[in-house]
TrEMBL record:
Alphabetized Pfam families for the sequence: AAA_8, MT
Organism this protein belongs to: Oncorhynchus mykiss
Family: Belongs to the dynein heavy chain family.
Residue intervals of the Dynein heavy chain coiled coil stalk domain: 379-691
Protein name: Dynein heavy chain AAA module D4 domain-containing protein
Cell location: Cytoplasm, Cytoskeleton, Cilium axoneme
Chain ranges of the Dynein heavy chain AAA module D4 domain: 104-365
GO cellular component, one term: microtubule
The UniProt record lists the keyword Cytoplasm: yes
Length: 696
């Protein structure tokens, strides 16, 4: 197996395909002549070695905390490119899942896998740097990213802006050296010729690749901090080296060179690549070069197959496969034509893999546009033919529907006429009852108006007596039960009190003593004994407040007049003689005054009672008539609803029949107008279908 390793290592240094073929023949000849002729048939046709074929270890739970479960890096022979392709597809999917903001969509043909193997071997080597030379779109950056991910390295690329300068580059280099030298982590620095904003950038990269040192990259205090942090790491790795500043700095630089992998992605087009190689030799001597030659035919076919496999094409699989092959052939022909153009006119024109990808995308775009355009036209023709067929079928169906609807319309007309006759009869009966109800209602309203007028007149009359009544009630409220008891206990009460009580006896229609002249006063002798009985009765004060005022008559008032005409029969005199009992005097005067007004109101009240009786009878008649009217109205509403439903059904049938007629007329006109177009549309639809099939 050692000769194979030598073959791989040397093959990576060749710059053209002829050198590779010559070397393979030479090694076969040497082995046959000087080693063992039987080993020649066992030589591997593509002896490539990688260290990422093994799977990561499965955790069991019994491992120590510091155990590493990453996939073991075993440098071994690739069994076959098919096996390697499957492994790389898995790694690519893992990259797309784990790396945010970056998505790889690579086609792993043989040349791409070969370049990835070379890049992986270079960056997996300590101090390994690569110079990838190829035209734009060859996959240099994408393959480097995937190889760095497989190796477990972080990836760094400068973010070029309008103000990006050497100072920014120095800051980025500090980040790289801290990661690789101070932290001891592997990192890949991808740098393209498009990012050379200033040629001075290459001077710093030349130093990085040549010696690993960049002058004045870190300040003294920064170096002190970095070296102090590396003391423990260096003692563990180099226990016999004293941790002086110079030793620590050398260890830092060597560690940075070991873990920092610079990958330069340059294009050979133009004179810049040649001049830069001469000015900055470290770009060549400090890197392992990998030339990205033009894609071979099988690579071109693999790429087109990858991008067209899921692309919808209206053709057979054989035609699609031929299209895939044709794309690669035409790209090769264009490349040959570019060389002929250079030989004839000495002007270089490059056809890059990016041009090939643009060619594939352009084909897909043009195909999709043409397909959509022709398919839209075909669909329009098909829709027109379908509408014509639907119109023909619709006319036949509408003719049948119209016959049925006309029969239903005739039945609905007969039904509506019958219901209309019922509505007319019910309306006439309801009109008669309504007139009767209106007569009764007018009579009741007339009675109500008369009652309201009499009530208003009585209220006006009674309002005049209201002040006297309120004054009497106020006077009664001043009398306490104790005042009445005091008067009752008097052996010889004042004469005015006895006369006041006589007036009360007259109003309550109680018995008085036989009329005899009082020897002391020019009046009748008071009936004090009867007055004491009245006052001794239970609820005397309540009977005064609830006195039935309508029971006062002309005779009572006439008998009260002699008492009222006496000079001392006044509230002021009674107040002096009787105290609070003087309120009885005001009450008796108010009752007499009330009678003078109420005698005019009493006839009105009597008449009001009569009118209310008449009103009750009228309301009863009105309720009975209204009940009859409601019954008739309910019958009328029911018949009217029935009539409305019948008329609606009739109108709906009329509308349906009219709409059916209009549709039939429109469909017939459409068929007659487009009868000549049907043949042309059918032929055109076939032509469109044929054009779609020829799109491939």
């Amino acid at each position: 197996m050692k000769p194979m390793v030598v073959i791989v290592s040397l093959c990576c240094r060749f710059v053209c395909f002829e050198d590779k073929v010559w070397f393979e023949k030479a090694i076969s000849r040497v082995i046959q002549e000087h080693v063992d002729p039987s080993l020649v048939p066992d030589l591997h046709p593509d002896p490539y070695f990688v260290d990422f074929l093994r799977e990561a270890l499965e955790p069991t739970g019994d491992e120590a905390d510091d155990v590493c479960l990453d996939a073991p890096k075993v440098y071994e022979l690739v069994p076959s490119f098919e096996f390697l392709r499957e492994k790389l597809i898995i790694n690519q999917s893992q990259y797309n899942e784990n790396v945010r903001g970056a998505s790889l969509d690579l086609v792993f043909f043989t040349d791409a896998m070969t370049h990835l193997i070379k890049i992986s071997r270079i960056i997996r080597t300590d101090c390994g740097n690569a110079l990838l030379v190829g035209v734009g779109g060859s996959g240099k950056q994408s393959l480097t990213r995937l190889a760095s991910f497989i190796a477990g390295y972080s990836i760094f690329q400068i973010t070029l802006t309008r103000t990006y300068n050497i100072s920014n580059l120095m800051d980025d280099l500090k980040v790289l050296y801290r990661t690789a030298g101070a932290d001891g982590k592997g990192i890949t620095f991808i740098f393209t010729d498009n990012e050379i904003k200033d040629e001075a950038f290459l001077e710093y990269l030349n130093n990085v690749l040549s010696s690993g040192e960049v002058s004045n990259l870190f300040a003294r205090d920064e170096l002190d901090e970095i070296t102090q942090n590396l003391i423990g790491v260096m003692k563990k790795e180099l226990p016999r080296v004293p941790p002086t500043f110079d030793n620590l700095y050398d260890y830092f630089i060597s560690r940075a060179r070991k873990n920092l992998h610079v990958v330069l992605c340059f294009s050979p087009v133009g004179e810049k690549f040649r001049s830069r190689s001469l000015k900055f030799p470290g770009l060549i001597s400090g890197c392992t070069m990998d030339w990205f030659t033009p894609w071979p035919s099988e690579a071109l076919v693999a790429v087109s197959q990858y991008f067209l496999s899921d692309f919808h094409m209206v053709c057979s699989p054989e035609v699609k496969a031929a299209v895939v092959q044709t794309m690669g052939i035409y790209h090769d022909k264009v490349s040959v034509t570019c060389e002929s153009y250079f030989d004839r006119f000495r002007r270089r024109t490059h056809v890059t893999p990016k041009s090939y990808l643009s060619f594939i995308n352009g084909y897909k775009t043009v195909y999709s546009e043409n397909y959509n355009f022709i398919n839209t036209l075909a669909e329009r023709m098909n829709v027109g033919l379908t509408k014509l067929l639907e119109a023909s079928e619709s006319v036949a169906q509408l003719s049948k529907d119209l016959v049925v609807k006309e029969k239903e319309l005739a039945l609905a007309s007969i039904k509506a006429d019958k219901v209309l006759a019922e509505v007319t009869v019910s309306a006439e009966a309801a009109t008669i009852v309504k007139a009767e109800v209106q007569i009764v209602k007018d009579r009741a309203l007339k009675i109500v108006e008369g009652i309201e007028k009499e009530k208003a007149f009585a209220e006006v009359k009674l309002k005049a007596a209201k002040p006297a009544l309120e004054e009497a009630e106020a006077a009664l409220n001043t009398i306490k039960a104790a005042d009445v008891a005091t008067v009752r206990k008097l052996a010889k009460p004042p004469h005015l009190i006895m006369r006041i009580m006589d007036c009360c006896l007259l109003l309550f229609q109680k018995r008085l003593d036989t009329i005899t002249m009082d020897p002391e006063r020019p009046c009748h002798k008071p009936s004090w004994g009867e007055a004491l009985k009245l006052m001794s009765g239970s609820g005397f004060m309540a009977s005064l407040q609830q006195f039935p005022k309508d029971s006062i008559n002309e005779e009572m008032v006439e008998l009260l007049q002699p008492y009222f005409q006496m000079e001392d029969y006044s509230f002021e005199c009674a107040k002096k003689v009787c105290g609070n009992v003087a309120g009885l005097l005001s009450w008796t005067s108010a009752m007499a005054t009330f009678f003078g007004i109420n005698k005019e109101v009493l006839p009105l009240k009597a008449n009001l009672i009569i009118q209310e009786g008449r009103l009750s009878i009228a309301n009863s008649e009105l309720a009975s008539a209204q009940s009859q009217l409601d019954e008739k109205q309910a019958e009328l509403d029911k018949v009217q609803a029935k009539f409305d439903a019948a008329m609606k059904e009739k109108q709906d049938l009329l509308d349906d029949a009219e709409m059916c007629r209009n549709k039939m007329v429109a469909a017939s006109a459409l068929i007659d107008g487009l009868s000549g177009e049907k043949v042309r549309w059918t032929e055109q639809s076939k032509q469109f279908k044929s054009q779609i099939n020829r799109q491939g």
